[in-house]
Amino acid sequence: MKTEKIASFTINHLELLPGLYVSRKDARDGVVVTTFDLRFTAPNREPVMDMPAVHTVEHLGATYLRNSARKDDIVYFGPMGCRTGFYLLMFGDLSPEDVVRDIRDMCGFILNYEGEIPGARAAECGNYLEQNLSTAKFYVERYLKELTENPRFVYPD
Fold first, then answer.
1. Closest CA to 141 of 101, 113, 100, 107
2. Phi-psi region for residue 77, left (φ > 0), alpha (ψ -120 to 50) or beta?
3. Beta strands 85-91 and 31-39, pairing class
4. SS3 23
5. Cα–chain-centroid distance for residue 43?
6. Which helix (H) or strand (E) holds 86?
7. Is residue 136 exposed (0-12), middle (13-18) or buried (19+ Cβ within 10 Å)?
8. CB of 119 within 8 A of CB of 131?
9. Residue 124: Cβ within 10 Å count
10. Separation between Cα atoms, residue 142 and residue 150, nearest integer Å
11. Phi, psi of 73, deg, nearest 5
12. Which of 62, 52, 114, 117 shows the shortest CA–CA distance to 86?
């Protein structure tokens, strides 16, 4: 079988910095799904994110987005396998500028969150004990600062 390099492997990860990027757009039967790369850390130059914190950001981010005004546009929110960020898939032919406010609001929700993590019970999650709210807040605060002070919306050449 001949395999083609997938789009995300064509991005130079040695130059990639934290930001909000369009990873790809897929269209079928008149429906467009835009995949966003929420890159929290600089790949291969900073330590990867702590897995319990990633899991907490996933639970809180998905909870926020699926309850927000844009909830009907959300297809998926979840972590990258490399643990340097998250993917957000949304219906629509969108740009980072179309969703940056939503991402900032999601970050604010996580930073202000206190209490039991939604979905962090044995009957609701396959690894419910692996959560870390304080470390999740550390990463989210850092990412929000990047989105606010140094917004990057275009992948490096």
1. 107
2. beta
3. antiparallel
4. strand
5. 14
6. strand 85-91
7. buried
8. no
9. 10
10. 11
11. -95, -15
12. 62
| Closest to 49 measured CA to CA, from 87, 86, 84, 79 | 84
pLDDT in tens, 8-66: 888 999 999 999 999 999 999 999 999 999 999 999 999 999 999 999 999 999 999 99
Structure tokens at 107: 């970050």
Maximal CA-CA distance, the chain:
50
Are 124 and 116 in contact by the 8 Å Cβ rule? The answer is no
The distance of Cα 93 from the centroid of its chain, to the nearest Å, equals: 18
Helical H runs in the chain?
51-65, 96-112, 133-149
| One-letter amino acid for residue 144 of the chain | L
Amino acid at 29: D
Residue identified by tokens 């929700």 is 109
Residue 116's pLDDT band (boundaries 50, 70, 90)?
very high
Cβ-contact 23, 38 below 8 angstroms: no
pLDDT of residue 6: 87
| Cα four-point dihedral sign 81, 85, 88, 89 | negative
